[in-house]
Amino acid sequence: MNVKKFIFFIFPFITFSQTYKNGEWTGSEHTPQTQQQELKIEKKEILRKSVSKIKDGQKWFGELILFEDSTAKWVSWTPQEIETSREILKIKSDTMKIFNEYWSTTKLFPYKKQNLQNLKDTILIDLEVSGSFYCSPSNKVNSPFGWRYRRQHHGVDTHGKEGDTLRAAFDGKVRFSGYNDGGYGHLIIIRHFNGLETYYAHQSKRISQAGDIVKAGDVIGLMGETGRADGPHLHFEMRYYDQAFNPENLIDIKNQKIKDKFKVIGKNGEESYIYPLSKKDFSYIKKNNSKKYHTVKKGETLGYLGQKYYGEAYNGAQKIMKLNKLKSDIIHPGQKLRVK
Ligand SMILES: [Zn+2]
Fold this sequence. Notes:
- The protein has helices at 3-15, 35-40, 79-95, 283-289, 302-310, 313-323, and strands spanning 19-21, 24-26, 45-55, 58-67, 72-76, 123-126, 141-143, 146-148, 151-153, 156-159, 165-167, 172-180, 185-192, 196-203, 205-206, 213-214, 219-222, 233-240, 243-245, 251-252, 257-258, 263-265, 271-277, 293-295, 336-338.
- By secondary structure, the protein is of the alpha+beta class.
- It folds into 3 domains: 3-77, no CATH class; 84-286, Glucose Permease (Domain IIA) (Distorted Sandwich), CATH 2.70.70.10; 292-338, Roll (Membrane-bound Lytic Murein Transglycosylase D, Chain A).
- Strand 4 (58-67) and strand 5 form a beta hairpin.
- The radius of gyration is 24 Å and the shape is elongated.
- The site of zinc ion (ZN) has 5 residues, from loops.
């Protein structure tokens, strides 16, 4: 097993082995060591990763150090170190157009309406512009992106427990942190350096504020079921210019990583991930717009509707049955059916 593979194998177990319960962290914990003790340990470091966590209701920043014997240690940073680690990103975000144009800390969708279904060019999204990518805390999808209960489900629901740690997917700046009455509940929106925005909904507790610079993997909140949610889960959205697309187009949620096919190997063997965003990602919008519904009136039969919408009573009725997953051909007045 090469080192990189090994890290990806071992890393999720370490980072997510801690759970937040009743205001306490459980699981593996770093025990502070004296300098002398540290000197005695001559284990080879294989990776240092900046991460944050919450303890006693407070956000802590630090570094997770992985050693070759697969043990790990978490070392907290001083306020000065925290400042420094975000300084470059802060300067970058202050000067980048995407953080100054269409920026709103109160509106969910601040961009001017863009018709991305007719996007001519492919937009190359750098998925690891600086830092890595963090997948949602769980690899189990409760409900995918797509058409659901007569409306578009604009995100992926991933399974989890109340209080599970939610982390920023990429480096970026928190644009919105607030309660949304429209169904999202406690919601955090992060705008990333790669131009994407990610939405994290139904949180039980928001930990980041609008304006915060976050690094990939930073704790931003805790999983919950606020808003329109049936049990605790993360509703995760990915948007470009306000327009949602399926996060699973690029994320392999089961294996908690960006899909291998988007890996690009540079001249010196360095790996990066680039996603070619195109109109294909938004073709669902056109499909949804062409969806049509009919409320059954007295005396109407499936055959009648088949004739009306497809010009063929039998075949049309079959299509309508399939669209509505009907088991019998009996319909009732007042019943709402999808006909296209
Ligand atoms: Zn959802």
